[in-house]
């Protein structure tokens, strides 16, 4: 039976994380600025990879490299992973805590290598520190990455490694393991080194998938979301309309459409500037979204014009929703913004007849009727059938 060479396992499994770190560095440079922490993950993976190679060369290179630099590098690398995860999920990074762990590790490794050499002391110290970094990162991933399978996988892997690392530290307290070397035949030591070597690769790949998942989700959101207000854009609104019409046609229901236009919005831009105009649009979107029922679809139709699709809502009820919006918007809510009002056109049709073109045409005619009538009004389309 061939010998199980831990040095070879560590060396072979340390190369790929380093290469993946370079890939992550390259991809991370093209990520949007709001996706943070990827560079820390890449730096951590590269640091862990180089440090693991130094560990594998123990006995063939100087102790200051294979013991002190290697162990401190692993502390730094896993700490960078933790800081990267905290930044990625919008949490306050524990930079000072990681710096303290790195400093503690450097002093402890130096002392227990040259001043008072002790294998058990080094093992216990490293196990305690790495249990903190692995465990902290695993908890961060599992707590804040619930919507991502990749994050849950990485978090689980980190917690498993934290348990193995803690077990390794506890075994150093026994007489048999107290003086065991890095590549001893001890089962726990073999398990620790093997899982650690494999974990560095799987976690690096997993972190890359976590970042790519975030990027994909963000790009998908941008494809159907108005970047200023956060509402649906027209394309997404038309998709929602199609789905709602199919549902309504099966049940024989109605579809109501509100077209809303902010009154004299050009004057707001001319008087207060476009920045204030943008803030008014954001304020309007936020306030209106809170006034509508849960089944609504609210979109920025274009410029200062907005659309609301109300499935299975009769004309009178649609007009009530419109009046509530008109009245609520007219009430000055933010002292830092100018007062503004809106005009609303309401259209309602049976789902079998309610093409988006016809609904929009009827609502648009009603909207212009509201504007001709003096603005800050709700106008019901002449083509609706009152129930």
UniProtKB/TrEMBL annotation:
Pfam families: GGDEF. Keywords: Membrane, Transmembrane, Transmembrane helix. Residues 253-383 form the GGDEF domain. The chain crosses the membrane at residues 6-27, 39-58, 64-84, 96-114, 120-139, 151-171, 191-212. InterPro entries: Diguanylate_Cyclase, GGDEF_dom, Nucleotide_cyclase, Rev_trsase/Diguanyl_cyclase. It comes from the Bacteria. It is an enzyme of class 2 (transferase). Its EC number is 2.7.7.65. The keyword Signal does not apply. It catalyses: 2 GTP = 3',3'-c-di-GMP + 2 diphosphate. NCBIfam families: GGDEF. This is diguanylate cyclase. The lineage of its organism: Bacteria, Pseudomonadati, Pseudomonadota, Betaproteobacteria, Burkholderiales.
């Amino acid at each position: 039976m061939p010998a199980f060479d831990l040095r070879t396992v560590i060396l072979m499994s340390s190369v790929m994380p380093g290469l993946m770190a370079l890939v992550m560095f390259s991809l991370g440079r093209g990520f949007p600025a709001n996706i943070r922490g990827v560079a820390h993950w890449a730096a951590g993976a590269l640091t862990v990879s180089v440090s693991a190679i130094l560990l594998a060369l123990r006995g063939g290179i100087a102790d200051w490299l294979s013991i002190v630099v290697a162990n401190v590098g692993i502390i730094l690398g896993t700490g960078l992973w933790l800081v990267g995860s905290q930044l990625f999920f919008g949490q306050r990074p524990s930079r000072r805590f990681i710096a303290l762990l790195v400093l503690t590790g450097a002093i402890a490794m130096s002392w227990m290598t040259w001043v008072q050499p002790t294998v058990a002391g080094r093992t216990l110290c490293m196990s305690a520190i790495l249990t903190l970094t692995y465990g902290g990162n695993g908890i961060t991933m599992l707590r804040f990455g619930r919507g991502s399978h990749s994050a849950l996988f990485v978090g689980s892997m980190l917690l498993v490694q934290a348990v193995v690392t803690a077990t390794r530290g506890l075994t150093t307290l026994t007489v048999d393991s107290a003086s065991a070397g890095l590549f001893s035949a001890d089962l726990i030591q073999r398990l620790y080194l093997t899982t650690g070597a494999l974990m560095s690769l799987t976690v690096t790949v997993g972190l890359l998938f976590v970042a790519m998942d975030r990027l994909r989700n963000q790009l998908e959101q941008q494809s159907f979301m108005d970047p200023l207000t956060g509402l649906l854009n027209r394309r997404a609104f038309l998709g929602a309309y199609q789905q709602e019409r199919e549902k309504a046609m099966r049940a024989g229901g109605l579809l109501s459409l509100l077209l809303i236009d902010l009154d004299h919005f050009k004057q707001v831009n001319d008087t207060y500037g476009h920045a204030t105009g943008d803030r008014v649009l954001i304020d309007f979107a936020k306030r209106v979204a809170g006034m509508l029922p849960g089944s609504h679809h609210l979109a920025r139709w274009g410029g200062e014009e907005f659309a609301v699709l109300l499935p299975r809502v009769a004309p009178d009820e649609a007009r009530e929703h419109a009046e509530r919006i008109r009245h609520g918007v007219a009430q000055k809510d933010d002292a830092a913004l100018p007062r503004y009002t809106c005009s609303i056109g309401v259209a309602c049709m049976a789902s079998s007849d309610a093409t988006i073109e016809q609904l929009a045409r009827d609502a648009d005619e009603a909207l212009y009727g509201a504007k001709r009538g003096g603005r800050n009004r709700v106008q019901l389309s002449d083509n609706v059938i009152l129930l």
